[in-house]
Amino acid sequence: MKEGQMHSRNADVIELANLIDRSPSAVARKLGNFASFDPKLKERGVKGLENASKLDSQIWNEYMHDWDEQFIESEKLLAKKKHTTIEKLNYIDLENLPNVEGKEKERMIIVRINQSLFRKMVLTNFNNQCCITGIKQTELLVASHILPWSKDKGNRLNPKNGLALNTLHDKAFDCGLITITEDLKIKISSSFLKNRDIPSIQHNFIEYEGKHLIEPQKFFPSVDFLKVHNERFKP
Prior knowledge:
With 235 residues, the chain is mainly alpha-helical. It has ten helices and four strands.
């Protein structure tokens, strides 16, 4: 939830308050407590509420250091409160899963849920637009991992490990033909220059060289993750 939206009149705050049988004001205060630990807000001189407890700090740290496990648990609790299943909550089509049973089926369901959650978080973080081009057709957008899904299990659901990219730039990013510098500028492989006379190469790639990434709503890409991707970049 963005800064300035953590108040008792926010529709999401009211919905959550009703689900957990608390007042909207109580939920808003708790969000303010958590905001006091947000390093990005601190950098901008924004302070959350000052009455945050040690338990608030513990919960914040658990989420920040174990997104995968904690997020799944929170989704299970949310589904229970809404009297549904985690699969239905995340629109997972069980009928189209491969014909497997037991532990393998359970594993595949969790993977689909993780992918759905990550996509929702990352696209929301970038206001449902490609963070390079600004394209807003969500059908064309991908929640792209900075550290590959297969390489870093602990950060699969970490929103700081995600970029909202259109399918073309997602592929280029995955191949190392595009990267993002530590100061969030777009860097394009020089291999594109060989075909700079092709209009689509000029407009889709070369023109973005050195431009700033569209700023996220809350979770900025991790500098450490970007450093790893920069090592895979093909200058």
